[in-house]
Amino acid sequence: MLDKLMQIEARYAEIEQLLTDGAVYADPPRMTKLLKEQKELSPYARAARDIKICLDRESEALPLIDGRDPELRELAREQLEETRAELERLYAEARILLLPRDPDDDKSVILEIRGGAGGEEAALFAAALLRLYAMYAEKRRWKMEIMNLNETELGGVKEVSAMIEGVGAYARLKYESGVHRVQRVPDTEASGRIHTSTVTVAVLPEAEEVDVEINPADLEIDTYRSGGAGGQHVNKTESAIRVTHKPSGLVVECQDERSQHKNRDRAMKILRSRLLDLERQRAAAAVASERRSQVGTGDRSERVRTYNFPQGRMTDHRVNLTLYKLDAVMNGDIDEIIDALSAQAQTERLRASDNG
Questions:
Q1: Residues whose CB falls within 8 Å of the CB of residue 39, separated by 6 or more in sequence, listed in order
Q2: Is 337 helix (H, G, I), strand (E, B) or coil?
Q3: Number of H helices, E strands in the chain
């Protein structure tokens, strides 16, 4: 591990030296590439340098422990204990740092939310989750754009697809995939009885054109007049697009933009991401459809998270985390939940690395 870190640190030092060369500045593409590599290697180089400082401190303290001066021996012993504790911490951090990264972590995402079991109440909660992710994206300074929206008469969401653009969006949001269960008294419930409904969430890394090759002959593209509940988003021209990928049977609709060209581009983005998902699932010999495995069936018994409004609590069942701040969570305060899920994933990767 240390050898690997030192190799990375040597490369980082080499890049630092190269960036002082005037010839590099005269070659913008090369400079951009070097600056990108420098940024990527920076945490590893910092870790290597911190470990080297500690190792030097350890080497200085060791000879003094056997010295004749009792006071100096005691100081050296204290320094050695502190240094070794610090080294242990740095080594643990370095192990995590050197774990293979998910290549999709820095990508933007396609977020898909669908009302599951519970009818109108599920659709209303789907709208609440859409707002939650919009507020979270705003806090992270990401850009969120609705690509397709199918609303109900009461302002609920039957289904929605949105693009969230920002570095690290997938790294943070990938843990949101699954069935989200809500327990609350609907506004339409006269007896005050608590209802349980579900909403399915899928988070897909945005696929680039180079990631997925689509044969135009495999596509069936229909245009239609877009519309919405209560006359919302009504468009007199046929700008809405429905793309059917015949080999997989996937169907994508986009009707949020008034431009047919923009809707087509957005539909193709969603299609590429879904196809990439399916391909990866086949490669991993998991299930036939990653989207089905991500979001389950939407049945009330399946869930990754429960939002209990009468008790004001949110429970994430994967990490047994319960927070009594549901209002804050529904306003996009979900970093604590994501951090816990991320830490668990990290622990599992370390365990797999040790067993491997």
A1: none
A2: helix
A3: 10, 11
Phi-psi region of 231 (alpha: psi -120 to 50; beta: other; left: phi over 0): left
User: Per-residue pLDDT for the chain (356 aa), expressed as one digit of tens each?
Assistant: 788 888 888 998 999 888 888 888 888 888 888 888 888 888 889 989 999 999 998 888 888 887 777 888 888 889 899 999 999 888 888 887 777 777 788 888 999 999 988 888 999 999 999 999 999 999 999 999 988 888 888 889 999 989 999 988 999 999 999 999 999 988 767 677 888 999 999 998 887 765 677 888 888 888 877 665 434 444 445 678 888 888 888 888 887 667 778 888 888 888 888 888 777 767 654 433 444 555 555 554 468 999 999 999 999 999 999 999 999 999 999 999 999 998 888 888 777 766 65
Dihedral class, residue 141 (left if φ above 0, else alpha if ψ from -120 to 50, else beta): left
Across 124-147, b (16+ Cβ under 10 Å) vs e yields bbbbbbbebbbbbbeebebebebb
Q: Going by DSSP bridges, is the β-strand pair 305-308/178-184 parallel, antiparallel, or unpaired?
A: parallel
* Token couple for 22: 């005037």
- The answer to whether the beta carbons of residues 106 and 171 sit under 8 Å apart is yes
CA dihedral sign, ordered 27, 33, 35, 38: negative
Model pTM?
Answer: 0.67
